[in-house]
Amino acid sequence: xxxxxxxxxxxxxxxxxxxxxxxxxxxxxxxxxxxxxxxxxxxxxxxxxxxxxxxxxxxxxxxxxxxxxxxxxxxxxxxxxxxxxxxxxxxxxxxxxxxxxxxxxxxxxxxxxxxxxxxxxxxxxxxxxxxxxxxxxxxxxxxxxxxxxxxxxxxxxxxxxxxxxxxxxxxxxxxxxxxxxxxxxxxxxxxxxxxxxxxxxxxxxxxxxxxxxxxxxxxxxxxxxxxxxxxxxxxxxxxxxxxxxxxxxx
Amino acid sequence: xxxxxxxxxxxxxxxxxxxxxxxxxxxxxxxxxxxxxxxxxxxxxxxxxxxxxxxxxxxxxxxxxxxxxxxxxxxxxxxxxxxxxxxxxxxxxxxxxxxxxxxxxxxxxxxxxxxxxxxxxxxxxxxxxxxxxxxxxxxxxxxxxxxxxxxxxxxxxxxxxxxxxxxxxxxxxxxxxxxxxxxxxxxxxxxxxxxxxxxxxxxxxxxxxxxxxxxxxxxxxxxxxxxxxxxxxxxxxxxxxxxxxxxxxxxxxxxxxxxxxxxxxxxxxxxxxxxxxxxxxxxxxxxxxx
Amino acid sequence: xxxxxxxxxxxxxxxxxxxxxxxxxxxxxxxxxxxxxxxxxxxxxxxxxxxxxxxxxxxxxxxxxxxxxxxxxxxxxxxxxxxxxxxxxxxxxxxxxxxxxxxxxxxxxxxxxxxxxxxxxxxxxxxxxxxxxxxxxxxxxxxxxxxxxxxxxxxxxxxxxxxxxxxxxxxxxxxxxxxxxxxxxxxxxxxxxxxxxxxxxxxxxxxxxxxxxxxxxxxxxxxxxxxxxxxxxxxxxxxxxxxxxxxxxxxxxxxxxxxxxxxxxxxxxxxxxxxxxxxxxxxxxxxxxxxxxxxxxxxxxxxxxxxxxxxxxx
Amino acid sequence: xxxxxxxxxxxxxxxxxxxxxxxxxxxxxxxxxxxxxxxxxxxxxxxxxxxxxxxxxxxxxxxxxxxxxxxxxxxxxxxxxxxxxxxxxxxxxxxxxxxxxxxxxxxxxxxxxxxxxxxxxxxxxxxxxxxxxxxxxxxxxxxxxxxxxxxxxxxxxxxxxxxxxxxxxxxxxxxxxxxxxxxxxxxxxxxxxxxxxxxxxxxxxxxxxxxxxxxxxxxxxxxxxxxxxxxxxxxxxx
Lengths: 250, 290, 314, 238
What we know:
Chain B is mainly alpha-helical. Chain B contains 11 helices and 2 strands; from the N terminus they run H-H-H-H-E-E-H-H-H-H-H-H-H.
């Protein structure tokens, strides 16, 4: 069974700085993988490369068996390779419904605007924010905007979903809500990559961890093994982080 | 095309580039720090040139007059920013562009009314014979003007990196809100920067006046030079303006020889658009610098 | 079905009203040359402002290229007619030339943002002006071109020009309404609000932006051709004057950038101001115009109608 | 007892109110931590306390001087330094230039400024090693050190630190917590917004909990940690 996503020797340089340095790993259908590393380790750059927002300096990206290196974000979105943004990016002057309808129309294959709005309403309800359909993004809470971002990702009928710190800024109760949402999306066969700092989220969701450090791949394996890897502890987790990860996911 | 002619054309280009550096530096600083493309810049250069011309008629050497004319036009810039441009400082690109375009209409037409459109030329300023290096002749006035252009630009660079207010200007350019948190009064920095920008334009005007015929009709050309050299050198980078000015000077003098002087603007404009597409951060600039 | 039908009523209504005015107004104003001139100037400004609004308003890209395609259209039509082709062929050539140049050029510079895009678009004006002046054996260079039809009865020409430009204005506004309501307008407004998010939403931003830029430029080209027919004589410094880029922007700003009817209202208000100013400050004309524009920009950057599209595209 | 006293503070953006009747005191010296979910108003509170936002109601006093109507430069002059969220060092400037910007509002002799620089370098040796390097080319943790050092250069009485640990490797957070404790020991008053509740309780001697723009609890970190209601809402992770 070919891997859903394959990164081979992926590299990206900005002038002298190598933000992503020869990273290779692959994802299979249905996995939930944690992508962790400290600020500046290259996580967001890697996501930007995989979703076409940045062109790689070197290396290859294959999605569902096809070479998609160099493809644009909108081509990849239409293929089902979708992402959310670390800093939430709604269309500020469109209602929540139309934010999602835009994705349904241009990436989700909806026939026309009425059909797109129909799909959009379903996605909003799926994320429990159906009643916010006519609200403008500035007038809903951060947690609701995060769910809106998830609803937009769903509207693109994703096969692979990059969630870039979708829990940042949420309190414990709000995080639990988002985790259940992510699990239900994964249950439908969507492969998910979670970019996260909160060990509670990583432990709760991911059986496998990919760790980046200064742009390079530091570790890639089962969560429990990575949590005990001395290099990872010294470079990123520290004693408190490692303890957090010890308890294996349910 | 033998090497003697090529050498002469290159030298002419570099001499022109020194003046272009002075024109572009002030424009680049204002664009970088205030995010305002100052369409008034070309006319400020013309104003400096006329002030130097009238000084020259009274027997004052334009290179010396620049020491007074620069700050005077700088003060005008300070007033224009503090009381007019500041009111739309946070407005979208469209608004500040159209506003400074309108101000240029006012200043340029005022000069046309006062000085008429016909060209005026100062006689030789220093009276020194041209410097001869092999077959290449370098007119004294043009050499002094070019060198002073680069010196003036570099002095501003030193001010920006060594002095307290200069550092604050760069800080406001990079992150205005955080500069405020350091206790910087951002409105004052904007007015100061706009003033420095127009002062440099005034100095460039004096240098150009000493070497070339001047007329209010030139303001569009000077503005074009400021655009191209500033983008070539990298937005907001004063040192970049020196590199951008020299490169543009050489390209323009080569271009006018190969294709003809009447296509000078097109050569520069095409160079600008290619630069914008290939390296918007300029030859020196770092990606994401502006 | 209901929405689709309802969607087409208003645009068709605009075209019908346009046709009626185009037919009726020249007769009503028959020999009043000043009013004919004023009405034709208004129709021209509405056309240009509405066309500019597709790029500057809907998509949020501050274009200064209007004068370039306006001049290109004027010359394309004038040159064709000089070689014996009919005025109609002239208009067609103007539209085709503008479209053929604006598509590739637009695709290139629309990758730039904000000031960079504005300057690159402004540069096109000086490039075309210089090339047109230089290509003198075809364009007559600095001497300009006298259009063959210019010798006819001036009143008849004035009336025909008014008719053509009113129809063009109605077409420009109707088309902008259709675009604003369709998927193209929806995609363009997403690009204006947040281009990165638009790309992730599957919107082919480069293609949509280029389509908008090309349509806008083609309309400006035809407007240039109509202007050449109206004035009868063109030269580079007139038809490539940057004011052809600035006036439509001011009109859209006054009326409300990004709204369909903002450019129409804004054009009327701007022309009233310009006529008043021009009437009594002849000597310092352009300078006074500068003062006028500065005041307008300082006083109402938001525009008369709501400047940015509020809420969802209907 | 020297302190920054905040009384009945209300503030917001345009018509959207974010803070409602917030009152508490920040002892000098000492470390006070603010916890609560984002959108609760933590960052807005700090922006009010540094003058970036003018409160609609309430007062801010330090040693008898009332500050709430001042511009940011007034707050800095009164002795309040702000280390912003995301550090926001000045790009295109070296580490040392960034630190010098921290002392912008202090009109004192060059000698004193260079003495202050040495003090920062002794506190954060890594900054000394990289003083002429571009500040933003350093790692997240080193940038946070530089941002704190920049705050020190203003010789403040109170330092506001917004999101100390966000995005940093836990191993680096331990280093920064120790550094802030040292500053408090040297007499500085600190008000730290911290999203990681475990870090907040380890760092602070006083904790303020903000929820949807209101202060729901204030007290010593020991008392607050003991409160069962707080434990499950916030302390689930420990």
